[in-house]
Amino acid sequence: MPRAAARCGVQQPFVVLPWGTDYATRMPRSRCSPVRWFGAALALAACSGHAVPAGDDGGDGGTLPGFDALPPAGTFPLGVSDDGGSLVSADGRPFLLHGEAAWSLIAQLSTGDAMRYLADRHARGVTAVLVNLIEHQYADNAPRNAAGDTPFTTQGDFSTPGETYFAHADLVVDLAASQGMIVLLVPAYLGFDGTQEGWYHEMMTLPVAKCRSYGDFLGRRYASRHNIVWIWGGDYTPATGSPVELCMRSRRRARRSRSPARSAWSASTPTSMSCRHAGPRARPAPACQPI
Predict the structure, then answer these.
(1) For the chain, does the N or the C end have fewer beta carbons within 10 angstroms?
(2) What is the mean pLDDT of residues 8-36?
(3) Quick one: average pLDDT of 266-271?
(4) Which residues pair with 128 in a beta bridge?
(5) Do 158 and 122 form a contact (C-beta atoms < 8 A)?
């Protein structure tokens, strides 16, 4: 397994608190710590509908079983049971969120390696992966992906998304869906205490209009995928009213405007969700909320 993926990407399990208990996210003091806690989360209300082309494994030869199929019927989008006690699949079955912190899955691994990783984790019963959409530090060639594609055509400018980079990200999300996995997707990881681990410093100076542009891009691009839960923050909680929080809120509002509207928290009418991935000194607040 590649260095960054093994160290900080694909060997960190997280455990889900029962729905209805304390939703506050318990965070370790390092992104490489082995255990992370998340409150139960609803999936983004949007349908994938994208099959992986037969034979497309990133040029590594052959296609692994199951990757030429649509997501399992009746699984996505997730919802909350009527009594609020558990997550349920689209057809009403209880859904166990058994996950792993695969932070650098999109940026570090080739398509073929991502397929092998997801197939292996599917065989082990993993149903969710926590992933950075764009990686600031923890990949061999960050922020570029394994193929050398950059997420932004102008470095650090969130309003200039690179099509080839995000086409690979799309494929990874769809590969996860084909294995029945939710992707807990971080649009711009902030970094522990706002360090160079993440995008905090870029977001401090990014004009709000460019934050909004990125959110609009994400909303349009991923509104058709069922298996995403958007993650707010990343090992840090910005100060209320700070430029970073304003950037995050502008991005979220723009993304929400492109998402299908839902009206209730129930299995029959699932609500899109986002979840906080807060720092260790974050003010108490629910980890997940409807978006």
Answers:
(1) N
(2) 33
(3) 36
(4) 99, 182
(5) no
Report the C-alpha gap between 181 and 178 in whole angstroms. Answer: 7
User: Which region among 76-90, 125-139, 181-195, 239-253 has the lowest average model confidence (pLDDT)?
Assistant: 76-90
Let me know: does 109 contact 2? Beta carbons within 8 Å.
yes
Residue-wise pLDDT for 205-214, tens only, equals 999 999 999 9
User: Tokens for 266?
Assistant: 């129930």
Task: Name the burial class of residue 163, with classes exposed (0-12), middle (13-18) and buried (19+) by CB atoms within 10 angstroms of its CB.
Answer: exposed
Cβ atoms of residues 260 and 215 within 8 Å: no
What is the pTM for the complete model shown? 0.72
Q: Please give the single-letter amino acid code of residue 38.
A: F
Q: Which CATH superfamily includes the segment(s) 3-290?
A: Glycosidases (3.20.20.80)
* 8 DSSP assignment: H
Dist CA 68 CA 78 (whole Å): 22
Contact 87, 288 (CB under 8 A): no
| Residue 215 · residue 250 · CB < 8 Å | yes
Torsion sign, CA atoms 277, 158, 111, 174? positive
CA neighbor of 82 nearest in space, from 95, 67, 97, 92? 92
Residue 114 has a CB neighbour count (10 Å cut-off) of 24
Domain spans of the chain, in order of start: 3-290
- Assign 281 a pLDDT band (cuts: 50, 70, 90): low
Q: Establish how many alpha carbons lie within 13 A of residue 57's alpha carbon, considering only the half-sphere containing its beta carbon.
A: 18
Asked if residue 143 has a cis previous peptide bond (ω within 30° of 0), the answer is yes
Check residue 13 and report its DSSP letter. Answer: E
Is residue 241 left, alpha or beta, with left meaning phi > 0 and alpha meaning psi from -120 to 50? left
**What are the CA-CA distances from residue 54 to residues 45, 70, 105, 169, 171 (Å)?**
27, 12, 21, 18, 13
